[in-house]
Each structure stands twice: as structure tokens, then as C-alpha cells.
Amino acid sequence: MGGPDMAPQTPQRSDTPRQSRGAPRSPDAPGGPDMAPPTPRRSDAAILSVRELRTHFFAEDGVVKAVDGASFDVHAGRTLGIVGESGCGKSVTARSILGIVERPGRIVGGEIRLRRQGDGGGEDDLVRLDPRGPEMRRIRGGEIGLVFQEPMSSFSPVHTVGNQIVETIRLHLGLDRAAARARAIELLRMVGIPRPERRIDEYAFQLSGGLRQRAMIATALCCGPRILIADEPTTALDVTTQAQILALLRELQARERMAIVLITHNLGVVAELCDEVVVMYLGRVVERGPVDAIFHAPQHPYTRALLRSIPSVHARVRTKLPAIAGSLPHPYRRPAGCPFHPRCAEALRGTCEQHEPELQPLAADGRAVSCFLHHPVAAP
What we know:
Elements: E1 48-59, E2 62-74, E3 79-83, H1 90-98, E4 105-115, E5 123-125, H2 134-142, E6 144-147, H3 151-154, H4 161-173, H5 177-190, H6 196-199, H7 209-221, E7 227-231, H8 239-256, E8 259-263, H9 267-273, E9 276-281, E10 284-290, H10 291-296, H11 301-308, E11 360-361, E12 368-369
Parallel strand pairs: 3-8, 3-9, 6-7, 7-8
Antiparallel strand pairs: 1-2, 1-4, 4-5, 9-10, 10-12, 11-12
């Protein structure tokens, strides 16, 4: 893939300062008025911290380093966007956080620290927990919800959608069957599924793609998680429904001060919904920072290439959309040095192909970039 997926009517970042997430929204803005959550103080501790996460797949032909040293923080009431081409490790990062990496993959290094609820609460390193143990089962779905990328393959084909939502509610909230069913119906109604009293007894294959995606979002939200990981949550939805789902996520975030980790190819959605952005390439974080800084002054060549590939209404008629040269390297033949240097027009000969850059701070506003254009080669 030469760039992010093209979404219809992708919004562009303007040159005017971004409206505060805590300020009232215009009634004409997508999502309605007063749906933006307040911005927490910078000093607020992260509720989820990922440090040097490494998830590898050990196949017969070699080792695939799907995630290779990713680090980022997730704050309450804020939205973190993770972007990059297909195959960059975004979905594997989400599965690593929840301990659902499929064999032959496993986490080989790093930390995933989840802050406990309550004042003075400690932290749990999710990497050290048994993926099948009771503590991880409590966290998975109860404190961290996941909207899967493919709802058709995520729902059981032999159980109704309602049966699966009710089971999750009863497991985490301890409600009886009648109360759990009533909550499930209300959740289906909240995400915009018509006639939820009927749809709750239907199977996933009886629903359209859009309704399946809505049902998947309802399942992820059924236990009121503190963190929602949304892996391409609007892929199967039309533009109008996509705007409704994004408005719903905004409203829920404002009400519950829920943190959202949004994994997407659509940079227009990132510009509209996210507070911070993590750009990944070949399992590594190449740039990280506030959304305004990333869109207005990207520092990594890969980030700039992604932004150039966004369709613009201001582009000249019949001009080709800029694409990133080349393609992702084969997972068994990762290039030496900087992983992006074979496709980079700004690569430094004699440096980028021999040395691996590290993610280092760039400014006081929390920006970080992994590129020799900004940081010299570390002394041996």
C-alpha cells in the first residue's frame, strides 16, 4: 500500500489554532454541541503506559518483529491515534495490550502498565499477567474494551449477538439475565441499531456490515471500560454513519472521561477526533506528539509522506495523488539501519543504512521523533 486509505471528503487541517476540546462545539459541527471532553492537565498520570513493547512471531521461516520497541501513554479523557500503513504493527499492538496475541506470536519484552482505579492506586504490568488468568480476564472487557477490525469474524456464528453481549455483561457486572438483557437492548439502541428488541435475538450473519460494526461497538462498551481500543471502528460504515459513530464516541468520552486508542488509516478521522498521534512503521514508533503539531509541522519523512497522500479539495484537477515510493519490506528481510531509509527521499547516505535511530524528545510539548535528520548518531 502506498499510503493511507482514501476516505470520502477527508477533512483538512486548517492553519487556525485547534479549538479547545473543553470548549463548547458549534451546533453545526459534527457531533452536536458540547460533546467534546475537557482536556486533562498535563501533569495527570497516564492510565496506560506502554514502554519498549516487543511482540514477535516465531514462524518456521524466521522471526517477524511485528512490534519492535513501541512506547506511548494513554490519558483519561483523551484520544490517542495510532496511524501507519497496513503491516506496521498497529493491530498487534492492540492485541498485545489485551494479551490476545495469537500463536506463534508472543510478547518478548517491554512493559504495559495499567494504573489501578482509585486514589493512590498502584500499577499492574499486563505483560506479567497470565493471559488466561482471572486478573487478565477481569481487565479484558471490564477495564479495557476492544472494537475489532472484522466484526464478522469476531462474533460467534452460532450464538446470537444479544447472547454474546449478555454473557459479557453478566461476567463483568454480575447482573441477572433479565437486567443484562435490558442493558444490552439499551446499548444497541444507543449505538443506533433500529428495533433493538428484535435485533438482539439475531445472529451476526443476519446483520448488515454497518449493523455488525455497531453491535461490536456496543459489545466493547457494555461494561463501561476506562479505555476503549477502537481498531478501524468505522471501516464498514458509510460516511454519514461514520460521522454518527464518531459523534457517539465523543459523547461517551465526555460523559465517562473514557480514554480512546484509535487505530486507523483515515487521517481525516485522526484530525477530527484525536488529541495525540503515534505514527508507526515496521513495528516502531517513528514520531509521536500532539495532533496539531503532527499535522502542521511533521518532522519525520514518513509522516510527511502520509500527509501528502491525503486527497485535497484544493488539488488541481486530474493530478495524481502523491504516493509513498516502494512498499513495506518483507517481514523476513528487514533493511539494516533505519527501516524507512530504502523509501526515504531524505535519507543520509552512510548513516541511515548503517545505524538505527532511536525515538528521542524533540520539543517541550511532548513531541518525539526517530530520525537522524534531527538527532545525531549516538556515540558507540
